[in-house]
Amino acid sequence: MLKHLKLGEVLAQHKLISQDELQPILENQPHSSKRIGELLVERSLISPDDLNNALKEQYWRDRGYWVIG
Predict the structure, then answer these.
(1) Among 42, 58, 46, 39, which Cα is nearest to 18's?
(2) Does 15 map to a domain?
(3) Residue 41 belongs to some domain of the structure
(4) DSSP H helical segments within the chain, as ranges?
(5) Do the Cβ atoms of 55 and 7 come closer than 8 Å?
(6) What's the number of domains the chain is made of?
(7) Which residues contact 47 (CB under 8 A, 6 or more apart)?
(8) Which whole-number Å values give the CA distances from 5 to 42, 44, 49, 62, in the listed order?
(9) pLDDT category, 62, cuts 50, 70, 90?
(10) Contact at 8 Å (CB) between 40 and 68?
(11) Reported pTM
């Protein structure tokens, strides 16, 4: 069975964010109506394109189809 890869893990693997940048977002997200990706873009920690690419990667990895190319 494949492990679900979290969005923060995908972004960190690509060195788009650090754990130090991600941690405050994860702590504050439960108090927000926004998703983690939205908060990261809103705070200019990643670009909308970075978010879109990471979400695509997360989707395909979760289904076992991700190919590095």
Answers:
(1) 46
(2) yes
(3) yes
(4) 7-13, 19-28, 36-42, 48-62
(5) yes
(6) 1
(7) 41
(8) 22, 22, 19, 7
(9) confident
(10) no
(11) 0.85
Instruction: Tell me the residue range of the domain where 28 lies.
Output: 7-62
**Beta carbons of 17 and 24 less than 8 angstroms apart:** no
Q: Which residue in the block uniquely carries the two structure tokens 């979760």?
A: 62
Q: Which two tokens stand for residue 14?
A: 């690509």
The residue written with tokens 């060195």 in the block is 15
pLDDT digits (tens, 9 = 90+) for 6-46: 999 999 999 999 999 999 999 999 999 999 999 999 999 99
Encoding tokens for residue 40? 């990261």
Query: Among all chains, which residue has been given the structure tokens 């190319």?
Result: 69
